[in-house]
Amino acid sequence: TTQSDEGNVFLTTQSDEGNVFLTTQSDEGNVFLTTQSDEGNVFLTTHSDEGNVFLTTHSDEGNVFLTTHSDEGSSIEFVVTGADGDVQTNSIAQANRVSPASVQWLKDNYEPAEGVSLPRSTLYNYYIRHCADHKLDPVNAASFGKLIRSVFMGLRTRRLGTRGNSKYHYYGIRVKPTSPLFSLNDDGGQSPPHQSPDSPSAKKIHSSQGSCSAGKTSSAYGESGAYERPMPADASPQTLANQQYLGDSDMLAFPDIEWGANPLPPGVTMTHVNTFSDLYREHCSTLQDAVHALKFSAVESIWKKFWHMGGNNNNNNNDDAMDVKDAFLSQIDEDDENNLATRIPPGPLQALMRARPVLEFVETADYALYQCLVDVLVPDVLRSIPTNLTQSVRNFAKSLEGWLSQALLGCPRQLQHLKIVAVSSLGQMLRRYTSLNHLAQAARAVLHNGEQIQQMLQDLNRVDFHNVHEQASWVCGCDEAIVSRLEADFKVTLQRPSSLEDWAKWLNKLVDDVLEPHRAQADFPLHARQFLLKWSFYSSMVIRDLTLRSAASFGSFHLIRLLYDEYMFYVVERRVANVLGRTPIAVMSEFLSARRENFSGGLSPSGISNGDRRQAINGVDPEKNEEPQLKKLKYEPT
After folding, report:
1. Quick one: where's region Disordered (predicted)?
2. Do residues 273 and 287 make contact, with C-beta atoms less than 8 angstroms apart?
3. pLDDT beyond 70 at 611
4. Which of 99, 251, 372, 438 might form a disulfide with 212, Cβ 3.0–4.6 angstroms?
5. Residue 589 lies inside a defined structural domain of this protein
């Protein structure tokens, strides 16, 4: 026992048959701290008379009780326990401000209901009205979100809505039919509140050619139509002017995490799985909003905020090197309810980020999101785009991999590798498409110049096409009939006034005529790749002949050849994606992953074979030497 009369401080420690008692008292400050351990039960009491705050934590038979006493003398008790004895941790920000009447109001007016959702803003508006009616101080929206999740365990958040009417919803809750709120709308009028049944189509993901525009039901990004996002109030005049050059942005729709017969990792519950799924959906929607508003610099912050694991993440040689628990408790902003580490405990979170179904879900979601971003930023590779917008997109593309690499420090390496490959494909595709667009604008001026077109036609008629045919036939095995028809069609199109769009139609028709006979074949990507090689060789032979003849239009032909090569690659890329039932960015990511596997000796940064990783994602056992269909059809390095 230690006692100081002048400072009014008393410290008592007692040990009796294994029980420990610790009491600290300060009369002037009116602070009392008592800790007691009795037969395995733990009691912690903090008392402040002036502030009228009482906090009691009690652990009895594995259950945890948290009791907060307000100045009115009433208390709120939260019993936190999980299914099958799993303990769930649920903190409530500003708990001393939550009135017991508010908790009771939630229980009286709402009830759990599977397959039903309510707008998050609607619930908060009703709560504000309740506080005003009872002269209570309301908590902010973030704290209210934590409060309602503590009352209704397992509540999830989803983003739902149609064009111009997208809102965050609480999924798994509804207004009780007996509640007075059942007949009120958001404005207090008499109409049933908005309760949305969960759409089955939102759980599916469809094959796509990569379009994110409205009205394309084959899209991988939902069937709700294009979503017109409101611009921020601080948008600059230049940003507003550039909006007209952007494509439509659909509401993203992802599949659920399909766990199947696989056992959950130790310590992981379905609540953790659903929380991860909902948070990742919201995260992707936030990224989509930022890019659509041309807030490119915000993407780095969004990534860092979402993936921040806390602690010193510079040491990435060992996933378990940092003390995840200490970092989680000390460095995460508890008011940020959309950060993974604030919503899922460290152990289950790390296990989830290594699980095969979660990796598959993340990969699918990233491909859908990134393809949509491409279609928003470069909706038409031939349409004229302002130079400042093109440069901004290119700078954005160059920064993506570095930003995401930094944000993912501290995450499992399997997840890092998967996400870096996908975002690298996004960066490459944006750079290719903006370069193609730049070539298109330069070539447009040539195609609209009648004198240059006449000179090109004269020089083309001097080319020794017989010699070109012979060399192309020997090297590529080109069909002579197809080559002759290609020559004739090119000259006819050059003779008549043709816009860049007319040439694009001709190139599209050429690709379809050549590749359509192979569409149903398993080696369609191989035929597509061979077509690109033959096209490139044949066109290079024509340019070679023009060079040797010192053709006056050589510069114009060289520019047109660069444009047509790039555009042909663009068209073939989309044809292959369509046949495989995937997005173009997913197809190119397969190719990029294979190249990285070759450069790294067949190992990803995690030391795991990329081939085995891909087989695991597709549900194939690597030890059985099985080869999934998609692996057979993927691009191979050339």
Report:
1. 181-237, 603-638
2. no
3. no
4. 372
5. no
Planar angle of CA 119, 123, 124, nearest 5 degrees: 115
The pLDDT score that the predictor gives to residue 573 is: 92
Q: Both tokens of residue 390?
A: 């093109």
What is the rounded distance in angstroms from the CA atom of residue 341 to the CA atom of residue 526? 44
Please, which residues have CB within 8 angstroms of residue 556's CB and are 6 or more apart in sequence? 446, 452, 455, 456
Q: Nearest to residue 361, comparing CAs of 221, 251, 257, 264?
A: 257
Residues 6+ apart with CB under 8 A from 230: none
Q: Is the same domain home to 480 and 424?
A: no
Three-state DSSP class for 124? helix
pLDDT, tens digit (0-9, with 9 covering 90-100), for 362-413: 999 999 999 999 999 999 999 888 889 999 999 999 999 999 999 999 899 9
pLDDT reading at 563 higher than 80 = yes
Q: State whether 18 and 148 are in the same domain.
A: no
Distance CA 101, CA 130 (A): 9
In this structure, the answer to whether residues 430 and 454 fall within a common structural domain is no
430 or 47, higher pLDDT: 430
**How close are the terminal C-alpha atoms of the chain, in Å?**
80
| Averaged confidence pLDDT in the chain | 72
Q: Distance of CA 181 to CAs 116, 157, 192, 628, Å?
A: 16, 21, 8, 53
Which residues are CB-neighbours of 333 under 8 A, at least 6 positions away?
A: 339, 342
Which residues have a Cβ under 8 Å from the Cβ of 36 and sit 6 or more positions away? Answer: 19, 20, 21, 22, 42, 43
Does residue 325 register a pLDDT over 70? no
Q: Is 168 in a helix, a strand, or coil?
A: strand
DSSP 3-state of 180: helix
Same domain, 273 and 329: yes
Distance CA 56, CA 481 (A): 88
> Which value, to the nearest 10 degrees, does the dihedral of the CA atoms of residues 300, 301, 307, 309 take?
120
Q: The tokens 């096209």 sit on which residue? A: 535
Query: Do residues 434 and 389 lie in contact, with contact meaning Cβ atoms separated by under 8 Å?
Result: no
CB atoms < 10 A from the CB of 365, how many? Answer: 22
Secondary structure of residue 19 in the 3-state scheme: strand
Q: Which helix (H) or strand (E) holds 196?
A: strand 196-197
Its domain, for residue 42, covers 2-81
Confidence at residue 27, expressed as pLDDT on a 0 to 100 scale:
45
Q: Are residues 330 and 189 in the same domain?
A: no
- The reply to whether 571 falls in a domain is yes
Tokens of 345: 């405990």
∠ at Cα 540 (539, 543), nearest 5°? 90
Residues 396-400: contacts with CB within 8 Å, 24+ apart? 396/296, 396/299, 396/430, 397/426, 397/427, 397/428, 397/430, 397/431, 397/434, 398/427, 398/431, 399/296, 399/300, 400/299, 400/424, 400/426, 400/427
Pick the closest to residue 35 from 8, 9, 14 (CA basis): 14
Q: Are 56 and 33 contacting, i.e. CB atoms less than 8 angstroms apart?
A: no
Any idea what DSSP says for residue 317?
A: S
